[in-house]
Amino acid sequence: MPELSINKDTGPEYDSPIGELARGVKDPSALIVNSEMELSTLFAVYKNPPFGVMANIIVRGERQEEALERSAALARLIGPAPEGVRVMGPAAAALARLKNEYRYQMLLKSASRKRLNEIVGELRRFAAAEKWGAAALVADIDPVTLL
User: Which residues contact 32 (CB under 8 A, 6 or more apart)?
Assistant: First the structure.
């Protein structure tokens, strides 16, 4: 449960991503989602499933430099975020080193499953053309661990 502190001048402050939405609200009860429609609107704004689609792109390498270079290459390939797609990262994965692998990730969000699948396909073709190993690029569509 996020921590809540009340500042008498600015209202409640939350230690969570939703804290941005809460800034300046004086009455914490105003932040309670009162209906399924309000909840669906909140998810739609952030394009979270089921109103949008997400892809967690994980790049792996035996050396940290290798994983970092690969993730940077994918970021350059995508370039500025394509229209209708939000790109976050690349950044070190939550488990940046697992056994003998270094991992970086990018999160892609879109309202269009077709558009996101096209981008993931481009990333896979790029990895194949660069002769990355079969496990060097992992695309997790609608990852449960991030929801």
Answer: none
